[in-house]
Every structure is written in C-alpha cells, then in structure tokens.
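Example (one chain per record):
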Amino acid sequence: MITIRALAFALGAAAAAGAGAQTYPAKPVTLVNAFPPGGATDIVARQLAAKLSQRLGQQVVVDNRAGAAGTIGAASVARAEPDGYTMLFGVAANLAVAPAVLRAVPYDPVKSFAPVVEIARGPYVLMVNPAVPAKDVAELVAYAKRNPGKLNYGSPGQGSVHHLVNEMLKQATGIDVVHVPYKGGAPMYTAIMAGEVEVLIDGMPGPLAHIRAGKVRALGVTGDRRLAVLPDVKSFAEQGVKGVDAQFWWGIVVPAGTPPPVVARLNAEITRALADPEIQATFEKQNIEPSPGSPEALGAWIAAERTRWAQVVAKAGIKPE
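Predicted structure:
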C-alpha cells in the first residue's frame, strides 16, 4: 500500500511545482517501456498510463521499444527533449546492469536521466526442481558444496539481472553452480520443470503459479522480509544468509535537464495514481508492492544499484559483450 509519507511528499511536491508546471502538459506524453508487450512491466505501465491520462488531462501513450536488454528504449528517452513529454519505465536491467555487462551503452544511467519516482520494489525467490534434496537455502548450499559443478541454474540470458543475482548467491555462499542461459523467461521455467537446470531465481509474479502447482520448490526470499503470498518461505536474512540483498524494481525517469517543476508534478501525479484502487488491485494480484518516494530517493537507489552490479560483474569475471 502507498504510505502516508509518500502521499505527503507528493502533495508537497505538487505545491512546490509552481507556475512552471501549471501549463504542463499541453500535449500527449509518451511512456517508453523498453520491453515487449504482455509482460508484467507492460501491464503495469499501461495501467499507470491510463490513470495518468486522467490525472494530467492529456493522453499518456505507452511506446514499446524493446531490444538489447532494454537499452534501445532507454537510449531513445536519453536522446529525447528534456521537456517532460517522454518518460522511461525503467528497470534494473537498463538503469543498473547494462552498463556493467555491455561493452557500449549509449547513455549514463545517472547522468543521462532525471529520476522522477520509484514505482515498486520487491525480492527475488530462490527455487529448485523438486528432485533436489533441499528444503531451505542452507541445505541447498550444503548439497551444492558436496556436488561442486553438478548443479545448473537457469536465466533468461547472459548478463541478465537473474544471471547476476545467481552470481551474487555464488559469491556470498561459495557454491559452484553452472550458468545455463535461455532466450527469455518462459524457456527457463520449462527447463527447471524438465530438470535441465536445478536452480532458478526470479521475481514476482513469475514464480507463484509454479510454486503453488508443486512444479518447483521455493527455498528462500532475498532480503529480510517474507512475501505475504509465500508466508512459509523464510527470507535469506532469517536463514542467516548474508550478502544476497538483490531486489527487482521499477522506476520512472525522464531526460536529464527536465525542469524541476515538471519532475515534481509527475512525481505527485504518479504517486497519486499508484494509490488508485485499480492499480493497487493489479499490484496485489501480481504480488508487488508500490514504493513511491522522492526523485532524490530514486536517484540514490539507481546510483547504488549501478555500483552493486558492477562489483558483482567484476568479481564474477563476466566480460562485457
């Protein structure tokens, strides 16, 4: 649920926006989603765009510009006029991970954008094929250490966030498991259910249906809190596993140089939109919690994430492609 603190900030931001935002927007606004239609990101982006259209009095249009781990869409926003009419529905992949795993990224996640507001943040779930004799993270680590190099983990691609979260797990626990990249999320789930790989890490809502159907077994949730929809699955912190503090997240950014009053207006209206009962219901259905705050908070988070994943990549010896 949206916190009173977030709403208070949004109201204050709206009051502070002043005359510079009074005429904004005077034409339709584009919200770029750097991934294909139909996924969880796209569903939320489109619902948010519909609510923002109502609040701003101008149509907010979702433009899917997929490709290159989300960098094509992000680059298009970085090049756009800094006037508040082009926004990016940003994710860890294009705002934190890409600069560490790609040889050339045509933007700087910190310098090329002005942060607006965080949309949501949540943990990853560690799962195994039911044939793996482990009921929690400690048992998996012990089993992997008895069988070095014999367990495989799947991801939706080399250099994906999922790949790096698994590398973070390896670095934190000292286990030796082998990366098997697939072309997307659906194939990696098919692989773990077929036993081609034994280990998988993913964020909500992807894992839930497979866990409930017994096709995979959840061993832990990254971070220090359990998920409400998986109350019996302990967090990594509860299990004494440190150093795996990865979280998936979404945030809205605009081109650097966008006038502060416009950023403040967008922050306020998006925060209010996230409090709408329909959006709240969508988030609840997907087991995602909205987490809006100030532009400065999102900016600090993006900078910290960029550093975090660069360190994981360097330690893992992953070479930029």
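Caption: The beta strands are 29-33, 60-64, 86-91, 113-128, 151-155, 177-181, 199-203, 217-221, 247-255.
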